[in-house]
Amino acid sequence: MTSDSTDAAATPAVVVQLTDVRKEYGDSVALDNVSLRIRAGEAVAVMGPSGSGKSTLLNMVAGLDRPVSGSVVVHGEDLGALSERGLALFRRRRIGMIFQFFNLLDDLPALDNVALAAQLTGVPAAQARRRAAELFDELGIADRADNYPAVLSGGERQRVAVARALMNRPTILLADEPTGALDSRAGEQVMDLLLDLNQIGQTLLLVTHDQRLAERCASRVVEFADGRIVGERDMESVR
Ligand SMILES: Nc1ncnc2c1ncn2[C@@H]1O[C@H](COP(=O)(O)OP(=O)(O)OP(=O)(O)O)[C@@H](O)[C@H]1O
Ligand SMILES: [Mg+2]
Fold first, then answer.
1. What is residue 1's predicted lDDT score, i.e. its pLDDT?
2. Is residue 95 part of a domain?
3. Taking Cα atoms as reference points, which of 206, 205, 196 lies closest to residue 239?
4. Cα-Cα-Cα-Cα dihedral sign, residues 190, 193, 197, 198
5. Residue nearest to ligand 1 atom 7, measured at CA
6. What pTM was computed for the model?
7. Which residues in the chain come in under a pLDDT of 70?
8. Which domain holds residue 189?
9. Beta strands at 228-234 and 220-225: parallel, antiparallel or unpaired
C-alpha cells in the first residue's frame, strides 16, 4: 500500500471548512475571522459565554446567514457562491438542525412534522411517511406518531425534532442547546441519542452550556469568547 492510500484511509473527509469568517451587527463583531475545520464523524461541541457568537457560527454552517468576509464550505459546496434558492436547497438536503425549543409545527401530528422535511425535497408523501415511521421506531417514539406536539413531553418533542433533522440523511447535524429546555432525565436521553448517532457515523456540531453534554458527546470542544476561538480540547480520552 502506498503512503497516499494509507493517509486517505486514516483521515476522514473534511465536511465543514470555515476560513476567516467574519460577521458584524452594526458596530458589534459577532464572528471575528473564525476558521474551523470539521471532519466526517467528528462531534464538535462549541462552548462559551452568552453573546460570544456560538449560534451565529451554527447559522453560518447551516447557510442561514452569510459572512461579510471569509468563506464557508460544507460538503464541498462554497455557500458564498449559492443563490438564496441554492442555499434553501442546500439546507434541506445537507443540514439537519435541532434547537433548544424544538421548533415543531404545532398544528401537525408528530409524524407529519417529520415526513414534511422529506416532502419539501420532492419525496412522495407515502415514501416520506414510511421513512419517518422507521425513524420513530429507531428513536423509541413510534407510539407518539399521531400525537400533536402539545401533548408530548419535552424529551419526546426533542426526539421528534431529531427524527425530522435526520430525515434527509444530513451531512452534518447541528444542535443549538439541545438539552437546554429539558429536565435532567430527558436531557440525558437526548445526550445518549446524540452519542449513539455519532457512534454510527453522524457528524455533529453542537452548541451547549452543559459541560456534561460536551464530555459525554463531543470528540472535540471548541471554546468561544468575543466571536473568536480561544481554545480547543480533544475529548476522545474522556468520553
Ligand atoms: N439578529 C441580530 N441582530 C443584532 N445582533 C445580533 C443578532 N444576532 C446576534 N447578534 C449579536 O451577535 C453576538 C453573538 O450572538 P450569538 O447569538 O451568536 O451568541 P451566542 O453565543 O449564541 O449566545 P447565547 O449563549 O446567549 O445563545 C451578540 O453580541 C448578539 O447580540
Ligand atoms: Mg445562542
1. 47
2. yes
3. 196
4. positive
5. 25
6. 0.93
7. 1-9, 237-239
8. 41-63+82-238
9. antiparallel
Given CA atoms 152, 153, 157, 160 in this order, what sign does their dihedral have?
negative
Domain count, the chain: 1
Residue 4 counted as domain residue: no
**Can you give the pLDDT at residue 236?**
74
Q: 18, 28, 206, 229: which to mutate for ligand 1, most atoms within 8 A of CB?
A: 28
Among all bound ligands, the one having the nearest atom to the CA of 57 is 1
- 211 CA distance to ligand 2 middle (Å): 16
Q: Ligand 1: distance of its center to the CA of 13 in Å?
A: 30
Question: In CATH, what number is assigned to the domain containing residue 101?
Answer: 3.40.50.300
Residue 224: its pLDDT value, please?
97
pLDDT of 239: 62
Neighbours of 8 (CB within 10 A): 11
Ligand 2 centre to CA of 147 (Å) is 29
